[in-house]
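Before the break, one more example. Copy the sequence into your notebook; we will annotate it together after we see the structure.
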Amino acid sequence: MNNFLFRKINVDHCKEIFILQRKYIQDFGNNIWETDELASLIKNKKLSGEVYIPKNKICGFCFFKKIDDFIEIYSLFVDPEHRNQGVAEKFIKNCVEFCQLNNLKKIILDVNEKNFKAIKFYRKHNFIFCGKRKNYYREEESSFDSYSMNLIL
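Here is what the structure looks like once it is written out:
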């Protein structure tokens, strides 16, 4: 982990995040955050998060919104070339630390029911299934349910 460079997300990162999402569109489907949309939410302090930047290029990001006494992770992604190196685990650890510093009680998120690797990852990090949203993710002519998961702190 000594090579990791995490920075607080800011509007200057939005275009590169958009490009990364487009590059791996098969992982995002129709759930891509547009540059302007993301920039507006960050500028208006409606989203927080981090980017992972090894060698001056964004290779991962995690952003979330603080709501009442919890955060909701809206997107957590690591470039496939940088997976299995602890980056996503560090994002989760940093979210937990954010919650602890702000006296927040849990982290919630939604994950596509077909994203078995992500579901396994979240379960490994003590997230539990807490609900299902029918047809939450839409891709062309298909739709998939979302599994809602949470981590009580």
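The mean pLDDT is 93. The radius of gyration is 15 Å. Try to locate both features in your own notes.
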